[in-house]
Amino acid sequence: MKEMIKSLQQNKKVLSYLIIFFVSIFLCIPLFSKYMDIARDDGIQHICRLIGNATTLKEGHLFPVIHSDFCNGFGYSWNLFYSPFTAYIPLIFKLFTASYVVALKLFMLATIFLSGVFIFQFVYQLSKSHKAGIMTAILYMSAPYHLTDLYNRIAIAELASFIFLPIVFHGMYDLFYEKNKISYKMIIGAIRINHNA
What is the 3-state secondary structure of the chain? Predict the structure, then answer.
């Protein structure tokens, strides 16, 4: 009986993640339209960072700070001002496409999905309700500021921060309500948010 209940709960969790995944795809449909130009506002510099990081990684520099090919050979130090995290992860998506723009769009989709997953996990721990977790995830993923960062500002670092904010709250909950538990979630989430800001 316990195994059957556990199996049902796991199936509910998988179903919850599938719902979050399809909602994130729905929210990102306009992003993948051929008319959606992300090479504006912050988007153009993030595309250039991807190109610069890819070039310097090919040259053998693991943590490029200055992209020496930029600005007519004078170089530019984008990774001093932005977290390399938001340039390395989109490069993983570059393995599946020839376009830096598509790689960045796939990363943006992943940030929407992962932000939904982590807020779901936090709310589920609080409420023990899949419905509450799913509803919160949908509201969180479709919050106006979240969508503004996605579609208007192309603010990659802020989009990534939406992933780690629920992790911080989850870690704080663990710290205060789960006795004798070291809160690695809070540490990882806070470091990541601070580094993305």
Answer: CHHHHHHHHHHHHHHHHHHHHHHHHHHCCHHHCCCCCCCCCCHHHHHHHHHHHHHHHHCCCCCCCCECCCCCCCCECHHHCCCCHHHHHHHHHHHHCCCHHHHHHHHHHHHHHHHHHHHHHHHHHHHCCHHHHHHHHHHHHCCHHHHHHHHCCCCHHHHHHHHHHHHHHHHHHHHHHCCCCCCHHHHHHHHHHHHHC
Determine the Cα–Cα distance for residues 77 and 62; give it in Å rounded to an integer. 15
Residues 13-69 pLDDT 10s: 889 999 999 999 999 999 998 888 888 888 888 888 888 888 888 878 777 777 777
Is pTM beyond 0.90? Reply is: no
Instruction: Burial-class residue 190 by CB neighbours within 10 Å (0-12, 13-18, 19+).
Output: middle
> Do residues 103 and 90 lie in contact, with contact meaning Cβ atoms separated by under 8 Å?
yes
- Rounded CA separation 52/66 (Å): 9
